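Troubleshooting entry. Yesterday's outputs looked truncated, so today I'm pasting the complete records for two proteins to confirm everything comes through intact. If either block looks cut off, that's the bug. Protein one:
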Amino acid sequence: MSFEYSVTYSAENNYENPVENAYWQFLIIPENNDTQELISVEIKNSLEAKGGFSQNGFGFQTIRINTSERFQKINFSATFKLKKISFNPFGQIPIFDIPSNYELVKSLNFKVDHEPYLRETKYTALPAGSENLFVFDTSISIFENLQKLNKWIYLFIHFNTGVTHVNTLLEEIINNPEGVCQDFTHLFCALAKANNIPTRYVSGYLHQGNGYFGDSQMHAWAEAYIPQVGWIGFDPTNNLLVNDNHIKVAHGKDYNDCSPLKGVVYSQGANKTSHSVEVQAEQ
């Protein structure tokens, strides 16, 4: 079974003073993978500035726009149509060889092979004394422990918009456990890594209409590498395994690798950026 989705991403940038020149990179295009097929891409901006496609350092497709026209406001919109293939996240889970899997994740070869996603980053660094916030029970499988971690973070952090920002660190989240999907995801990545599990930050879209947290903006979740299985998606904001409602755009070590918009703007003074996302199931 498959589902067709239409995703519309909109952004508006306002500047206090005129902008003489600007370059933007959008990381917002759904990827093609085993569970989703990108059908079409439509991109517009209010200045009709020319754009093009490229790839970022992780191999994900980006949109680049450059304008030399003087302006103080610009709107962007992009619409993507894609087909999502239905899958059961529990369908690929085998009977685990529990002792050997824990031996494997502690081995030097495993750590070398997965070093980029075991590495601590600015946003996945645990403050001193918090490394044991969640310790794996080695009598049960890594997959079961990750499910328990997913639920633990869901209960630990209170979803609340406006209390954190893109530069919020885990020390603040642990001391005051409120935030949005990127905060849930950074903490999941940090605690999984503290238990020797390679974990990567994922950005994408979440199908609206299901009552999930985070479905009106770009969403974030984690993918953890599980021996005998591979990469499995966990959404701690909603205590879910990633499923048909999750539309992946990109992954990286943390939010900084997956920021939907980066740019260089030649201007002075303040600026304000807002964006919104709408995901619709096609009939």
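Protein two, checking that the full record survives here as well:
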Amino acid sequence: MNRLTLVRKNLFRKKTRSTLLLLSIAIAFLLYGALGAFNQFWEDPPQAPTRLVTLNKINFTQPLPYAYYNRLQSVDGIVAASHANWFGGYFREPTNVVTSFAVEPESWFTVYPEFTMPAEQRARFISDRTCMAAGAPIAEQYGWSVGDRIPLQSNIFTRADGAEAWQLEVCAIYTSTADTAGAGAVLLHYELFRETASFGGNSLGWFVLLTEDAALNESVSRGIDDMFANSSAETETSTEAAFNQAFLEQFGDIATILSLVIGAAFVSILIIVGTTMVLAIAERTKEIGVLKTLGFRNNAVFGLVLAESVFLSLLGGLIGLGLAAGLLMAAEAGLGDAFPPIVITFEIAASAVGLMLLFGLITGLIPAASALRLKIIDAFSKG
């Protein structure tokens, strides 16, 4: 019997208690992994360094006049511009939400060059107003193929002719070469939307712009907003990263909330595991005395007890981290997202393993120190 076997047998000598401790630690690291991945997504949203977004200064839901589009294209430093309207679509049932935008097709793929598709599909989508382009994730989610006719309804807009849905043909399925918001959306023609929607067709939701160089972003943004200052629809222009961050922050201060949840879970479980480890070692006072009688030095006994705590923390933490990864994968598969996947990155995994080691050391330090100081005569008198 080697020392590793001794650690394992001592750790699982009471299986129910060990299982509950593993479950507690697994829950803590499940929260750390899953919420950490969400937190990283919130703090570092996808972006392109030369892409700007212009929207109404009041808020995201207020439209902008179509006339702004031509004026924006003449601003120095802008090499491409496009526009979009939030469509608020769903497929068959309101619960089947489909992130969908009414866009100007040709310019949209200019400002989002990472969106790719076969040339013939792109040409068909651009030329046919009754077509739609579907991001690969949403097409896979609903089993759509090129040539399918899809009834797309909106929870915001209605058709002027009284029809319930826009009957659109899937003319293109696009993929993205980068983690970009909108990579799994449905795109329909703005002109079709303008002609058929009962309202909102003469205005635009937001503009997407490409600048010549990221160094020009600040001056271009300031120039655009100054151009429309004191108008009936003032603008606010920011980088794509800032826009995505502001959009996500509408849900609240997620970073702080997640930090508080993770912190509370760790403190609670640290107390539970630490207290349980102290009691477990106290129960084995006589056994520790036997080990010392057999020739185990104090430092060796200290190491054995500390190793139990670290092993327990690592095992429970890795189980929790694995569950978190599975949970995120299941969420991604269920949502068929229009946003990039939220995953446990190497940085999160590495920091989690570091925390597991620290967690094990902290919870095992007090019982290990007690075992270190225990004298043989005291051990047998208490046993």
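Both blocks look complete. Sanity check on protein two: The radius of gyration is 29 Å.
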